[in-house]
Amino acid sequence: MGQLFYGNATESIEIPDRLLAHLKVLTATKLRRSESFTLTWRHGADIAAGRQTIWLQPAIPLRFVFSGAEMEKLDSALLTEMARAATSSTGLVVDFADFDIARALPVAPVQPTGGDAAPVPGELATAA
Question: Looking at 1-87, which runs of residues are DSSP E strands?
Answer without folding.
Answer: 2-6, 13-15, 37-42, 51-56, 62-65
